Each structure stands twice: as structure tokens, then as C-alpha cells.
Write a sequence for this structure.
């Protein structure tokens, strides 16, 4: 379990393991996850541009790896929507079938939650 935590970047290297090598392996796994998510929804990563990497890193640091990259990117879109970081013009320009429909659902839920939280309806 200690090794898994170290590879996820949430724990120290267990005894007998080189901390520097584990840090490199953890970084490689984070990069692999980022690229897999970007490939699952390329227009979102393109639209976010330079913000994709930093925003995904924030999301991923507190989120376990889901079973598929597609689920990961959808969870990331929800994360962005909940924080009002998902560009509104991206919503108008999304042309990716079921992902688009699901994104609108996520965005609507996030907007409703924010409205309830602020007391406006």
C-alpha cells in the first residue's frame, strides 16, 4: 500500500525504494493519465490550451483514477463546471455527440448547485 501511495504522489517512498526513482515513476504516471484524458476529448484539451495541464493536475491530485480515460475526462469536465472554469463558448461549440449531451447535463447540474448555494433560483 505504501508503494501505491508513493506512485500516486500521496505518500513517502517505502523502505528499500529509491525516492527519486519513485518520484520519476509517479510523474510518468501523472503524465500518462493527462495524455489519455486529452486523447479522450481532444477539443476540450485544445480549448483549454495552456490551462489544461495545470487544471487537470489540480483535479487529478484529489481524484482517484477511474476505470477509463473517457470517464476521467468527463469527471474533469464536471470538476471544471462546478468551479466555473469550463468556457461557456466551448459549450456552444462542442460537437462531440453523446459527450456534448452529457456535458450539458453536467453543466446544468453544476449551475443549479451554484444557484442553490447562492440562494438564487
Amino acid at each position: 500500500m505504501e508503494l501505491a501511495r508513493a506512485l500516486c504522489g500521496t505518500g513517502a517512498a517505502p523502505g528499500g525504494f529509491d525516492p527519486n526513482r519513485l518520484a520519476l515513476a509517479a510523474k510518468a504516471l501523472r503524465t500518462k493519465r493527462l495524455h489519455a484524458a486529452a486523447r479522450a476529448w481532444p477539443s476540450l484539451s485544445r480549448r483549454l490550451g495552456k490551462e489544461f495541464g495545470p487544471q487537470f493536475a489540480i483535479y487529478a491530485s484529489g481524484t482517484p483514477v477511474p476505470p477509463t480515460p473517457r470517464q476521467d475526462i468527463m469527471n474533469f469536465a464536471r470538476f471544471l463546471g462546478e468551479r466555473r472554469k469550463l468556457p461557456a463558448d466551448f459549450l456552444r461549440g462542442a460537437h462531440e455527440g453523446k459527450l456534448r449531451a452529457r456535458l450539458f447535463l453536467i453543466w446544468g447540474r453544476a449551475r443549479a448547485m451554484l444557484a442553490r448555494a447562492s440562494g438564487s433560483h
